[in-house]
Amino acid sequence: MPTPSASWPSSPTPTRGRYGGALEQYGTSGALPLRTWIDDPHRNLHLGDTGRLYSELAASWLWVITGGGLVLWIARRREGSAKRKLRATVLPDRSATGRRRTMSFHGSVGVWAALGLFFLSATGLTWSTYAGANVTDFRASLGQATPAVSSAVGGEHAGHGSMQGMDMGGSSGKGRESADVGVDAVLKAARAEGLGNPVEIVPPAGPGTAYAVSQIQRSRLEKQDAARC
After folding, report:
1. Where are the domains positioned within the chain?
2. Is the whole-model pTM more than 0.70?
3. Structure confidence at residue 131 (pLDDT)
4. Number of C-alpha atoms within 13 angstroms, CB side, residue 93?
5. Does residue 198 have a cis bond before it (omega within 30 degrees)?
């Protein structure tokens, strides 16, 4: 849900209280529908599960075909000094004519394109149905899985969306079920724990759970903290 504002306007715009529709967002990055539509060809070619399996098959063989082409091209560059061989491998030979010129441009373009093709293959496999699941299991076996904050609350603070040790009036109320303290109080508590903008606040799913607040900015690793409030 959106991060609440720190202050509210004194004269809010009147509303009718009617549901006006939803603008779906993709993932924690908050991508809007257009970006989601653009991302889908990489995942499933807009063909559902069939397209996702086809993409996985293509990604599985893409790096093999690309690597084979690199080996064949580099093997042909055996004449001359090391500097000349390197230049002939990564740059086209403009002095060549006919078929040699065509092969030179084809090979040099393929060398540079291989960087993107290897990246495309690797990222495509992590999103795939079967290989992606194996990557997730492999990360978990190495202890590299992304940690997650549990929203479960036990013991005397198992109220719906409760802050620890607070009752409905905000005073200490041990032994009594706590009331929902509201998004503003949760945001304030998250700020006190050092969580800065932007954040995502997930409300309690039911009794015995609390609010979960997570930073959603992915440009910096230290901006991915989460807290239970």
Report:
1. 41-141, 155-228
2. no
3. 85
4. 17
5. yes
